UniProtKB/TrEMBL annotation:
The keyword Ribosomal protein does not apply. It comes from Streptomyces triculaminicus. The lineage of its organism: Bacteria, Bacillati, Actinomycetota, Actinomycetes, Kitasatosporales. GO terms for molecular function: NADPH binding; oxidoreductase activity, acting on NAD(P)H. This is Zinc-binding dehydrogenase. Keywords: NADP, Oxidoreductase. Coiled coil: none annotated.
Amino acid sequence: MQRLIPTGDAARPVAFAEAPQPVPERDEALIKVEAFAPNRGETFLLEAPRPGLLPGKDIAGLVVQAAADGSGPGIGTRVVGHPAHSGWAEYAAVPTHSLAVLPDGIDSVRAAALPLAGITALRLLRTAGSLAGRRVLLTGASGGVGHYVTELAVGAGADLTAVTATPVRGERLAELGATVVHDVAAAQGPFDVVLESTGGPGLPLALSKMRPDGLLVWFGQASRTPVTLDFFDLLGGPERVTIQHFHYAGAPYGADLEALVSLVERGRLHPEIGRIADWSETAGTLVDLRERRIRGKAVLLTGGAR
């Protein structure tokens, strides 16, 4: 079979290679991959790939070999999956605890756009707690996570302000009901909850706009710049604010994937897909994703997607 492997070349970060078809563990199903969606974090890993790196965490496709232990969906079932790696290939072995069955009404393109960003959004909002009537600030909002957080948070009754780099990247968020600004400094606080994903100077500035006893959930550092906090600056800001570090990872993922599929099926979640392309265009798509030239998710098709 063919798979994409890292090249170490920033201008063309992946290339095709021949590889043996994966042999599933007893609790894994073999999936014929129809579509996959890269994540911006994966583009950073490809800048200096570690030996043996095989990217690919978000896939959708068809079960061609059921798990030997009897768990999970049977042969011929359409699924969305979140393997730990190795999804940018014609076939992928995925633990059954990280698969969800797709209904006929959800195509592989939308399904592939769900896993990492969608699971992150669900778990991030659970960490934030009830949002009905609360004022929320979301930074770095124009990517896949930002779109899902915005739609779900506004749908839950939050008064959400989203920070995007440019007006065009905020258009869809405004349609979803967010107040959109293009600099943290322009956000009109105070906020009960801050969902912070940029790091650098943006985090302290967002922190200064919080209410006393508020919660800041720090879930990324898209600026790739460390954060500096000054104790004495905090004394002049809101009191007793909690800063909570967050990372989405932790299998099993199946229940969250099922929840995301259900939300899409019921019309309560709409994946924002900025590019759909054949997987022969993966290298260029990865560069565009890294450089923020794609709004929302990018989905690559291996053939046969529906």
